[in-house]
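My hope is that you will study the record closing this message with an eye to the fold:
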Amino acid sequence: MKVMLRQNSAGQLLVYVAKKDLEEEVVSQTEGSEGKIFTLANGWELAIPDLSEPLKLPQTVEAKRLS
């Protein structure tokens, strides 16, 4: 699914999922076998492969929902 990564005014990383009309804060980030894994405030885990460092925001990327 396509998601947009951006920062809010407080500097917190946000993920917006247009198909679900969902915007949530990222509460943790880890490295996994499928790339960078973001855990959202609602409990979702999204895997984003090939994410460039340093992170350039805002950007739209392809993500896979793990849970």
